[in-house]
Design brief:
CATH architecture of the largest domain in chain A: 3-Layer(aba) Sandwich
Low-confidence stretches of chain A: 475-479, 486-562
Shape of chain B: globular
CATH superfamily of the largest domain in chain A: P-loop containing nucleotide triphosphate hydrolases
Largest interface: A-B, 13 and 12 residues
Shape of chain A: elongated
Number of helices of chain A: 14
Oligomer: heterodimer
CATH topology of the largest domain in chain A: Rossmann fold
Distance between the termini of chain A: 29 Å
Helix content of chain A: 25-40%
Structural class of chain B: alpha+beta
Number of strands of chain B: 7
Order of helices and strands of chain B: EEEEHHEEEHHHH
Strand content of chain A: 15-25%
Strand order of the largest sheet of chain A: 9-8-20-19-18-10-17-16-11-15-12
Amino acid sequence: MALIGRVKGPGPSRHSFSVVAFDQHTALDSGEFVTCPIAGRPVLARLVERRPLRPYPDSFLTAPELEPQHIAAAVGYSELQPPPVELVAELIGAFDPALQDFINPRRLPEVGAPVSLAGHDQLSRLLNRRQPGQPGAAHLGWLLSREPGAVPVVLDVAALTSTHLAIIASTGAGKSYLAGVLVEELLGPHNRAAILLLDPHGEYGSLAALTGQPHQPEVAVHQPGSLKIRTGSLSLADLRYLLPDLSERMEYVLGQAYRQCRRGDGWSLAGLRQAIAAMAEPEAGKKSSSYRETANALLWRLNAVFEDTLLFDDHAPLQLRELVRPGQATILQLNDIQRRQQQVLVAALLRQLYRARLQTTQRTISSRSPLYLPYPVFVLIEEAHHFAPAGEEVVSGGILKQILGEGRKFGLGVGLISQRPGKLAADVLSQCNTTCLLRIINPVDQQKVRESVESVGQELLRELPALSKGHRRGGSQHPAPVPGATPPNAPSGAGHRRPRGLAGILWTKNVATFWPEIVTTTASPSAISNLAVVLFDDNHSYSESSNCRLTWFGCQDTEPLS
Amino acid sequence: MAALGKLLRSTGHVDYLGQIYGPGEVDQPPRPAEYALGTFVQLPLATSPEMALVGVIGDTLLLSPAFGALGPRLTPEVDLALFAPDYVNEKAVLVAILALGTLDANGQADQSLPALAALTDTEFEPLSAARLLAFHTAGRGLRLAYAARLLALDNPLALALLRLIIHQLRQLPLTADQLAVLAVLRTQLAWQQQVRPFGAE
């Protein structure tokens, strides 16, 4: 392990400490993992801050054509050593093999204690419960602060699928790509999971390219209309949701007709129409029915919804064991379908899966039952905020929350993918024990993540707006939150994209203007130019050389990743 | 080694003023390089003959009777040696010597504040390289325990003086660890002296 510095003293927070690093050119990025001894045991810590210890006077930085060390040399300071840097590290703890978790030592390292960079192998062992390729391992990428291939980031599939997953990111940040990587890993020969992917925008069709690879995973893509839900599986609540804004009389007629036509486990649309039409008929001894107009209007509404539907059919028994199978990803593309119909479809599917797993696990059905489903199922839901939105009752919300709360017992896991966590129902995100956070810019969404994902530290959250495409922060099932990058050679769920740099604009405020401005630095070692964005001006006096606070915004790759 | 001069007075327990021998006082008066700023000297202690004070030249003063004599003289400047030889001898070079510790004949060093003071007229001579090494490394690794005391003196040259001392010590046969200690101190002092006055932290 490379010695990188020594402990200076306590840090700004209770569980942090300052380190004076020997060499500022050492790659000690924010998020890097270090170890130092406390009471004779090596304790893992994570770097969260870095600042130079001897910054040059401001005036040395005002000549555009001169580097400050040239000016320092002119006044007699010609030391070749770069100024030292101070790092702030937050304690994670000492790993306890018995508990398989980190134990906080509840004390800080002694002043002067050596601080070392955690070794690749050590980190790999500490951060991952499984190693790539092992049964039950999902290899999502590599630790961002180390070179590609050095420290894998591996999720435990059992924990992931049983205690649920969330992938949260702004649009374009790489969440579909990450989901694609995850699906590929789950389908691998060491896992052979049964996956159902609900795809409202039809963007995961490219996963079909996995079929035919050496381990022969299967990917079944269902276009809108190629898979139908039996109408008999819809509940009265589903029907009401598909027929919004019914009058009280219509609600009454619908409820009566539904109860009349329901036989045993289901009902048919034809039967429902018949029952409604019957209510339009005159009652015995009367010239006309008091519900004739209401029933006719309801029939008209019913036909308008169900005549052209691509999703529901009286004679389409859903074979769950064909829909989801081990080693197969089933993608339901829901584009071109109305939002409400999408929600009803998802509700009906989740309900059936839940019942199937519940009854199979409890052995209340035989293996000949169409509901018999003798293996766990993992359901990935893209645009999850459509199916469990905050502050709005939708038909899919209830069953989704039920699965998040109880699905673990029956081997039914859910992965939620969303670009708007702020629009997700409050108790949905917090139920996901594994969270992958990519770049999130919206402050409301950041706040929602802050409230919902307990294991994410404030320092990690501060980094969310500055993450690049494909860079993510992992929470929960990893003993320590880890920053990672998806492997560049993995097929993407959204078109085999490769993670690239990004550019963007925030806001600046300087002496005369309030225009967005991007500045670049050329201090990076290669031909990469770092884009920095002036957020706001710190200096109230606006002198010629104002102090500006810069936020790293990312790097523009000059070459495609290979 | 030949004596450089003798003590005239002290301005404090560790601040001495000595006069460098001039022409006529010794066969070979010392050259200016021999009493340059930062030169280590030793002064025998009359009360403990085996013990010597170790000091460093921390300042230089020039004395001339012409200073303050604003009126004309009858003897031209070039004839002074002939008509007033004693006048020439009144010109002097004074050096301030800061006592840093003690060193005995066996090379045992003590860098704490010396309890014993030197007497007037004590001759001082340069410290040899071997004795300089002994004073700074005697048995316990590199030591500059006097550094903080030196910096605390009311002497505007103290920082530069310490840098000169470090520069001299780097010429001695030191171990890599000892040189690393000096490198850290050198960088810190250079920053403190050269950059901090311009407003750096």
